[in-house]
Amino acid sequence: xxxxxxxxxxxxxxxxxxxxxxxxxxxxxxxxxxxxxxxxxxxxxxxxxxxxxxxxxxxxxxxxxxxxxxxxxxxxxxxxxxxxxxxxxxxxxxxxxxxxxxxxxxxxxxxxxxxxxxxxxxxxxxxxxxxxxxxxxxxxxxxxxxxxxxxxxxxxxxxxxxxxxxxxxxxxxxxxxxxxxxxxxxxxxxxxxxxxxxxxxxxxxxxxxxxxxxxxxxxxxxxxxxxxxxxxxxxxxxxxxxxxxxxxxxxxxxx
Length: 255
Ligand SMILES: [Cu+2]
What we know:
Blueprint: H1 2-9, H2 16-43, H3 50-83, H4 103-131, E1 141-148, E2 151-155, E3 163-164, E4 167-170, E5 175-181, E6 186-190, E7 195-199, E8 205-209, E9 215-221, E10 233-239, H5 241-250
Parallel strand pairs: 1-5, 4-10
Antiparallel strand pairs: 1-2, 2-3, 5-8, 6-7, 6-9, 9-10
Subcellular location: Membrane
Pfam family, one: COX2
Keywords: Copper, Electron transport, Membrane, Metal-binding, Respiratory chain, Transmembrane, Transmembrane helix, Transport
């Protein structure tokens, strides 16, 4: 009894359980921020465009900013589970907890949440603005992308008649995709380039990217579109400008 009274009289930041929860909070925040950020970044593969580099950076920042929120919830939950156990039907005296009626705590929480949301909104808009840059590039090549159950068609309007099921792109050159669909809704996704846009029948949606790495990357459908949706995938070959010209020629185009 006397111990509870002494604890109650001490300011809240000097209480032992508060200090322990705070320590747990810091440890969990660092763990969540570090681990979750890495898992998110690595699960997408090495980035093959500046858009993807920006996206990964943004995901890492958002993870670090939200880690303390998850960390605080985890710390309080763990601390309660470990040291606030209670058996029987009579609730313990401290169950009538002060924080439940604290307008100050509510205000801090509402303002913090509001600021976090505002940060995510403004930051996201700046990154999206940056990503749209390639749409204005004067030297961009155009590719018409058509999704159908269950494959992708790539047409090269600068070289009429050239059509492929695998995408070929020159490195370091902006490309504008005019995306549409033949039958149902699909979603055009180049995983390692951070490009994902809906492919709707009867509409053309534009998106753009500048591939900055030579290699072979994954193209997938990201919208459940029927029985073989999971198999609706192909590849994008990012090659040098000379190899690209050679490929276009081999397909009957004039490079
Ligand atoms: Cu699909």
